[in-house]
Amino acid sequence: MKSPQERMNYVIKRLNITKKMGGGRRFFFWKVIWRYYQIKYLISIPSSTKIGENFNIVHYGNIVINNAVIIGNNVSVAQGVTLGLAFGGKKQGCPQIGNNVYIGANSTIVGNVVIGENSFIAPNTFINFDVPENSLVIGSPGTIHKRQKTLES
Asked: Per the confidence metrics, is the pTM higher than 0.90?
């Protein structure tokens, strides 16, 4: 039996493939399956969200991602993560997450912000500002620490 993370990742992959093929009945089928898993595992990620390859849900439960969020390749999110819309102010809009980013448990990223590649968002971090590449962000509100090594090394 596959783990919940593997099931969700499989359905995300199938949705993206069928959407590229033009949708139709297969897309509707996978959308129904996707909705079932959203309810079962308490994860709200609309099928219209732009998600790169190798998106990984590390722990399932209470994950909310807005449909306008753009997620890069090799991004991992833990339980309790919120990637949401800011309705007003200077940063009105949704986040853009770069490649090779880890977002820790119960972290919140809101507004039109860019999370740079190879960044690590520590658990329980609140971010409403841009994060440069190769950064470690800790705390609420988040503080940026430059990292010496990237995620690949």
From this structure: no
